[in-house]
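Journal club prep — side note

Before the paper discussion, L.F. wants everyone to see what a predicted structure for a comparable chain looks like in token form. Sequence:
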Amino acid sequence: MAFILYLRTPGEKKRFPRQADAVVHLEERGFSDHAIHHNLEQFFSSPQGPRENVAAFLMVSLGIWVADKLIPRRETPDAWTREIVLNLAAPAAWEAPLARLTPLLQFLTGDVWTLAARQAPLDLGFAALWPHPWLPQAVVLFSGGLDSLVGAIDLLEAGKRVVLVSHYDFGQLASVQQRLSDRLRRYYGPDHLHHLGIRVQFSESPELTLRSRSLLYLALGLTAAAAFGPDTPLYVPENGWLCFNPPLTLNRLGPYSTRTTHPYFLEQLVAWWREVGISHRLLNPYQSLSKGEMLEQCRNRRLLKELYPLTISCARPEVGRWQGRATAACGYCYPCLIRRAALHRLGWDDAKDYRVEALADPEIVRRRTQGRDLRALLFALKTWEATPAEIEARLWLTREMGNLPEFLAEAQGVLKSGFQEIAHFLRDKGGKQLAAYLE
């Protein structure tokens, strides 16, 4: 049975349908239903005012993100695929484009979506005035992770003036993003960058898979870029390993493999933007590089080495916060392991930066939770070294992609360099216990 979610716009007078399973609002007074806590008023209303199509895309992304968090997968027949009807405000001409967006959402989250549009005001209260005499030449997504730091450094080294856009939903992440942006501002000067931290928080989150977060992040970046005109590009700094995200085991095929910055997803999203009159470019210069190559080719390695300890790559940094640990990164999740392999390539890896030294504990591979991603990585590496074609066959590549042979060659290059990084890391630091798994 479909779950019906109704997303109100600020000041909307319409009554919501009785059959709605949940009504979500943007923190409006007088409503006791599900609230999205936010500071969207921090978006710029100058030099150019908000455009309706960009505001509508932000509302679509907010609704999808909330539905993704609110509706538990475990309650569906296959414990994964949800049927979701999202009722939201959109321009009158968007009925057909929204229908064409749903297959892309299914690709992203693994769910069956219906987007029901209604006409309503789309004033989201953007109120900030651009405070500088200079205008940015690019907007960069700035998560507080390693990749986003490299992306920011490379653009600043190229002489670009940039706006760094961050999304946060808990305070520790906001402080990481702010600390990094402050250090970059100190190094490059206040006339080269502005940091915009956007809080979008939905506390009712029984579902933790969060396949749609990247869509919200892109919408936040687009909304920031729109204030500076349609020629302002949006950069998504993401290494190619994560973009193609090879399923490590057969159990991780299909919906269990995230596709947040997959080339097909980004390509199709830009095509959809063009359909609804959004002309901003969406760029990822690192799609053909492994994470280690991305770090290695950074335009200011000295600054990167100084700042990388401030970044967070962990999948669940809030766990360390709840436990009162000084170190947020767990050390055993997939992003932590890939980060360590990349840093090891440069000789920068330090196990003391993590709560758990996953490679030093001979028992960790057998543990249900802490050993899950390490086991998957070991099995994938063993498969790759025996039959690379088996891993390549797991990649999600389709004839619908604009240039399939080019994407395939790019993916093969990323797999080769990425698995080399992983192999060197595991064999150099894993000891005899892990080496036995690779024999």
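L.F.'s comment for the group: The chain has three domains: 3-118, 138-283, 313-437. Keep this in mind when we get to the figures.
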